[in-house]
């Protein structure tokens, strides 16, 4: 149950314990997400950066990046709402790991400061929001997807996506802000 | 003094309290970094993502992204060392801010879990490493730069860059690993 709720809290902001990167280069996977039929977009790992964040609490500790295709990034930069059809946002979630290597250098440079560096460890999941105002009219114009190791999460998981994004209705259901 | 040491711990891993983004789109600034003569590369904000991390301790709390130009990203993906001439790595550092908006959604989805979301707030600084094995032979083949609000940090700051990167000599002085 917890897993289901988690997965619904989707793109680029909140976390679940699901889905991920098909390969180092983000090649498409043939499987589509339940309900929405969203496949992993080819080349998403090459997209431009929207923002970064990290999530902490309980056993979940992640560093995260949101990437956008050209349409999405242009809209973010111009503050254009709603996002135009064709916009896709990718949220990449990595389990974070403390970097002993970095911490050692920090301790040398700043004795006693207690700096800690947390870097991207194993990928946990990747999520997508695809804007198609016609196809996804019932869910704010967005289709959702959640993948781990190239495989989509369950239908139950995907049923929770839109409800979690509803609080961001005034920003076209997108939580992430562009990092300037 | 602290500020100087901090700035030396450069690209994409460790932090200082200096330098930054010339504009939302990363346009070049006319000023070059002391010692190395590195200017802000036009279009760096469009580059591809290498990895993300966050840094905590003392009063410093940052979320961070490392971007690379095509040459750098290709080398990262192929595990090619040393990095070829022309590779440029950009480290973007934002002071992190707790997201009340995200936390509210998390609290609803996971009552009692104590999840906390930290997102990119105001930009703190941006740093660059530029590979030119001839020009920068004395510093591992890398030229360094640290900018805040488009202005380069002091010469004293830039004198610390290479020494802090020396522990990563076996990875061509680059701390960041590519996030897959």
Keywords:
disordered N terminus; alpha+beta; 31% strand
Question: What's the arrangement of secondary structure elements?
Answer:
2 copies of one chain form a homodimer.
Chain A: H1 2-8, E1 48-57, E2 60-68, H2 70-78, E3 88-98, H3 100-109, E4 116-131, E5 142-148, E6 151-152, H4 155-158, H5 161-165
Antiparallel strand pairs in A: 1-2, 2-3, 3-4, 4-5, 5-6
Question: Could you walk me through the main structural features you see in this protein, from its secondary elements to its overall organization?
Answer:
Two copies of one chain form a homodimer. Chain A has helices at residues 2-8, 70-78, 100-109, 155-158, 161-165, and strands at 48-57, 60-68, 88-98, 116-131, 142-148, 151-152. With 180 residues, chain A is α+β, with helices and mostly antiparallel strands. The first copy, chain A, has a single domain (2-171), classed as Chalcone isomerase (3-Layer(bba) Sandwich), CATH 3.50.70. Chain A has a six-stranded antiparallel sheet. Residues 1-29 of chain A have low confidence and may be disordered. At the A-B interface, helix 1, strand 1, strand 2, strand 3 and helix 3 of A face helix 1, strand 1, strand 2, strand 3 and helix 3 of B. Strand 4 of chain A pairs antiparallel with strand 1 (48-57) of chain B. Chains A, B: InterPro entries: Cytochrome_P460, Cytochrome_P460_sp. Chains A, B: This is Cytochrome P460 domain-containing protein. Chains A, B: Residues 41-176 form the Cytochrome P460 domain.
């Amino acid at each position: 149950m917890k897993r289901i709720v988690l997965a619904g809290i989707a793109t680029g902001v909140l976390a679940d314990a699901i889905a991920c990167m098909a390969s180092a280069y983000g090649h498409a996977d043939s499987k589509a997400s339940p309900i929405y039929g969203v496949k992993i977009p080819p080349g998403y790992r090459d997209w431009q950066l929207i923002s970064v964040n990290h999530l902490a609490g309980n056993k979940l500790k992640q560093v995260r990046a949101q990437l956008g295709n050209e349409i999405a990034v242009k809209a973010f930069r111009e503050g254009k709402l709603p996002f135009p059809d064709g916009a896709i946002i990718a949220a990449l979630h990595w389990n974070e790991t403390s970097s002993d290597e970095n911490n050692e250098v920090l301790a040398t440079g700043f004795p006693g400061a207690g700096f800690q560096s947390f870097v991207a460890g194993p990928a946990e999941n990747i999520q997508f929001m695809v804007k198609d105002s016609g196809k996804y009219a019932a869910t704010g114009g967005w289709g959702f997807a959640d993948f781990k190791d190239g495989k989509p999460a369950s239908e139950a998981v995907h049923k929770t996506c839109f409800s979690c994004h509803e609080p961001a209705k005034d920003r076209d259901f997108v939580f992430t802000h562009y990092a300037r």
